[in-house]
Amino acid sequence: MKLLTPSERLRVLTGTQLLRRRPDWQAGFWAGLLSGALMAVCVLAADFGLGLGVWRPIRLAASIILGGGVMATPGTPDLAILIVALAVHFGLSGFYALVVADATVFVRRRAAVLMGAAMGAALCALNLYVFTAVFPWFSLSRGVGAFFAHVGFGACTAWLYKRMESPIVRKLGPRGPALRASPRAP
Known about the structure:
Elements: H1 6-14, E1 16-18, H2 25-49, H3 55-66, H4 79-104, H5 109-130, H6 144-164, E2 169-173, E3 176-180
Helix pairs in contact: 2-4, 2-6, 3-4, 4-6, 5-6
């Protein structure tokens, strides 16, 4: 008995063949930007609610480029630091989302969300435990809140990616394959 490849199984079960073998990079990047924005709002709101102020996480993100010296005055507003922090945060969000998109391209939405959450937990460990060898001041952010923020980022990114990705499907009819642009096409 011959074992079928995933593509052959899809063809047998549904009469369609998935043509896209690569992630939809554009959808992945936008999912990362949107999830990054949601994560930023949640982290800023949590820090503000805890009385830590909104400039601590902003300075923490900017310190990746500017160094630990920006953490000396964590409550002081600074436009240049805000611009660097936004560039770093959204650049990393977009990059990490492309990793999530690549990992979840072949799974359904529910599995993708679980995978995204697991990748968010791994990202938290990477950011707050591994990278502290280079950025020791990141250890200040360790905690349950940071863990859930990263898990939420991963899950939200995967969910948004699956909502935005655009698979190209080939319908296998009696006369051979025919491209189908949308579910409504005959």
